[in-house]
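Here is one chain, start to finish.
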Amino acid sequence: MDGNEQETGAKARILLVEDNHMNSRLTEFVLERDGYAVEIVTTGEDALVAARENKPDLILMDIQLPGMDGLEATRILKQDPQTASVPIVAITAHAMRGDEERIIAAGCEGYIPKPINTWKLGETLSRYLQD
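Its structure:
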């Protein structure tokens, strides 16, 4: 079974939290190409609502968002019993020294630097879905 399919054979559901329209369209295209079902929201606040209501299998979280940033949204989701077990992978254009530690400390299982590698994204996420 591929990492992008659940035991029932259904597609894994990814909640993509990304405020840049071009980035979200490209990422959605790549994820759907790789067999994932994708829901897109553009703010940290909307991510909280969507995660609680739709129970995604994984959240791909941009760190720089308008209003509540991705790290704050991650902290809230990881403290909520409804969403604490959902793996969150950060995506960020700011892959500087100390960022990985900050991202992991907020509760993310890992991070992917931007620009994303469109050929490896699905494979990378499948590892988080299998854990």
